[in-house]
Amino acid sequence: VASIDPYGGTEVPERVFGIIGYPLRFTLSPIIHNTAFREAGLDWVYAVFRVPPGEAPKAVEAMKVLKLGGLSVTIPHKEAVFSSVDSLTPVAAATRAVNTLSWSEDASLVVGDNTDVAGFVRGLETSLGISAEGRNVVVLGSGGAARAVVWAVAQQGALSVTVAGRTPSRAVALVESITDALQGKPHSPRLRAIGTEGPRLKEACLESDLLINATPVGSDGTSIPVPREAIHGGLYVYDLVYSPMRTPLVEIAASSGAGAAGGLEMLIFQGALQFEQWSGGDAPIDAMRRAALAELATGLQNRSGTADKSGLK
Ligand code: NAP
């Protein structure tokens, strides 16, 4: 515990939290949460746990055995953890993706939640001043983050949602499960899955007014997840990637006249909601944002080019 003790010495924190993911080479979550704990005067600490693919169920057991206060869940475990918890919030059940583990009120059950959904909604509103209501939306990716985004835009009243997946079968599975979750809800959008090869992705973008990147493409600072010609001035672009803060997709979209933003605000808001769940108090959002920005300006940038950043959360 001494190595993760932010106070130095051998003082043992009252409660330990953390993030599970893999490869998790870089993550802003410890800086965001440890800042929040300090600001709130809590003697808590947030650590990084590298959990290889396939071992998420053991990590949920470890949370019980080690009496951890809670866990954040990132790539590649969001879908695996879904099947390992004792109970799910309605939003985690609908998305079949879990990014937050907490304890039930009587501390007997591990509860899975998904704060990416509300974090995305707040990020879209804060960074671009919009919601997905009445929009034709393209979502790139079919992993855990894409599940949260598709559910969020459907709840907001999007007209149509096209999920474009590198592995079309995963995109189809995502659309099927969100369609199931939307059964009986009024005003559900038209949902469809497409691959990323061929002309359909470009056509879908040209017919849409909101494009959301829920893949890690662009975190290398050079690649873009759609053909350049697919980007037009009538689009809003929200890129979940936040490092670099302005990805090539965001830069190209902005220079084409599109409204465009990266995913930092979503990251801050989903973390703030985790903090509120764990502590029961209001999150010190401004301090969390300042800490993340400072880390992005120094820590992550200093290390850029030294390793693959696809495990960012
Ligand atoms: P994930 O579950 O691993 O899913 C990643 C998705 O991206 C998969 O559908 C994958 O395709 C696709 N993909 C990966 N590399 C690709 C490539 N080179 N070309 C095309 N598609 C590719 O990860 P996730 O949890 O959904 O996270 C996705 C991204 O969102 C990450 O960059 C993560 O850091 C970011 N994120 C940001 C926030 C935030 O708060 N800003 C929150 C959550 C996630 P396959 O299906 O073929 O594997």
Task: Summarize the entry for a quick read.
With 313 residues, this protein is α/β, with parallel strands linked by helices.
Strand order of the largest sheet: 2-1-3-5-6-4
Structural class: alpha/beta
Helix content range: 25-40%
Query: Would you tell me the overall average pLDDT?
Result: 93
Q: Indicate the multimeric state.
A: single chain
Helix count, DSSP H or I runs of 4 or more residues: 11
Low-confidence stretches: 305-313
* Proportion in β-strands: 15-25%
Give the number of DSSP strands.
12
Main β sheet profile: 6 strands, mixed
Bound compounds, each kind once, are: NADP nicotinamide-adenine-dinucleotide phosphate
Distance between the termini: 23 Å
**H/E series:** EHEHEHEHEEHEHEHEHEEHEHH
Any overview of this molecule?
The protein is α/β, with parallel strands linked by helices and 313 residues long. Helix content is 39%, strand content 18%. The protein has eleven helices and twelve strands. The protein has helices spanning 29-39, 56-65, 78-82, 90-95, 116-128, 144-156, 168-181, 200-206, 248-255, 264-279, 285-303; strands spanning 15-21, 44-50, 70-73, 87-88, 100-103, 110-113, 136-140, 160-165, 190-195, 210-213, 236-239, 259-261. The protein has a six-stranded mixed sheet with strand order 2-1-3-5-6-4, with helices on both faces. Helix 7 links the parallel strand 8 and strand 9. The longest helix has 19 residues, at 285-303. The model is unreliable at 305-313 (pLDDT under 50). Bound molecules: NADP nicotinamide-adenine-dinucleotide phosphate.
